[in-house]
Write a structure and sequence with these properties.
The structure is a single chain. The chain has a domain of 133 residues: Rossmann fold. It is 37% helix and 25% strand. It has 9 helices and 10 strands. Strands 6-7-8-3-9-10 form a 6-stranded mixed sheet, with helices on both faces. The protein is globular and about 50 Å long. It binds adenosine-5'-triphosphate and magnesium ion (MG). Magnesium ion (MG) binds next to helix 1.
């Protein structure tokens, strides 16, 4: 049996009268890339905010490495890194200073933060722009720094909320390679994206959410197999089949 690094049990969160997350349960195995997929407004980011101790659930629990978000959030925060869907950068700081700042926030010494920042800049292909102000960066460079920040402190579990949204194939490929490299180092990753082909290639298992609930969960190949010959069916076909074609928001 694979070791379960994160267990989410019956998570619920409503805002006014909207059930943003409506009874979500799943677990993520140590070392796997777990995809959380779903249309706009499905509840992916709200789920991630509860998993990462940012938002208390109305109901249910999250257990990470044996620690509950209900009363051991501080222990969980030492294990996780979060790449938020909305860029969280200081535009007037350099790339290095953004990384060092967030490294200090997670408790690294100045020396350690600078050393990790340098290694991360190399990993995300920004060594040449280490001293450049982030406000001058392209969209892809900003996304790469946003991802880099989540790696400061070498967290065991990463929550990557649409890290490749709106960027060119070169930046997307760099992020893709970075995520695969992290998996190779044994990190556990929760990943959201609207690019189904990317999820199919990258994720060991995916959960498809809609209207705050999980409507399908399995290995991409198995999900495709349930719909037809897996060489003919795409994960996008599965996605549309499970979530319908009506527009959301
Ligand atoms: N702070 C909030 N206050 C009020 N409503 C919220 C809040 N956060 C999320 N919602 C609502 O909860 C629902 C789920 O939103 P969420 O951001 O989790 O979806 P998502 O799956 O991440 O969507 P997207 O793919 O667009 O990022 C939506 O209806 C959204 O409007
Ligand atoms: Mg979202």
């Amino acid at each position: 049996m694979p070791e379960e690094f994160l267990i989410a049990q019956d998570l619920q969160k409503s805002f006014n009268h909207i059930n943003a997350v409506d009874g979500v349960s799943f677990s993520i195995h140590k070392g796997e890339i777990f995809g959380l997929l779903g249309p706009n407004g499905a509840g992916k980011t709200t789920t991630i905010r509860m998993l990462s101790t940012v938002l208390p659930p109305d109901n249910g629990d999250v257990v990470v490495a044996g620690h509950s978000v209900r009363n051991q959030g501080d222990l969980i925060r030492r294990l996780i890194g979060v790449c938020p869907q909305e860029l969280a950068l200081y535009p007037e700081f350099s790339a290095t200073d953004n990384l060092v700042f967030f490294g200090r926030m997670v408790g690294l010494s100045g020396r350690e933060a600078r050393s990790q920042a340098q290694a991360i800049l190399e990993r995300v292909g920004l060594t040449d722009r280490a001293q450049g102000r982030v406000e001058k960066f392209s969209g892809g460079m900003k996304r790469r720094i946003n991802l880099g920040i989540s790696l400061m402190g070498h967290p065991e579990l990463l929550f990557l909320d649409e890290p490749t949204v709106g960027i060119d194939p070169q930046s997307r490929n760099n992020i893709y390679e970075t995520i695969l490299g992290l998996k190779g180092e044994g990190k556990t990753i929760l990943y959201t994206t609207h690019y189904m082909e990317e999820a199919d290639r990258l994720c060991d298992r995916v959960a498809i959410m809609d209207h705050g609930r999980i409507v399908a969960m399995d290995r991409p190949l198995e999900l495709k197999r349930k719909l037809g010959p897996p060489d003919k069916v795409t994960l996008e076909d599965v996605f549309l089949n499970m979530t319908g074609r009506s527009l959301r928001d």
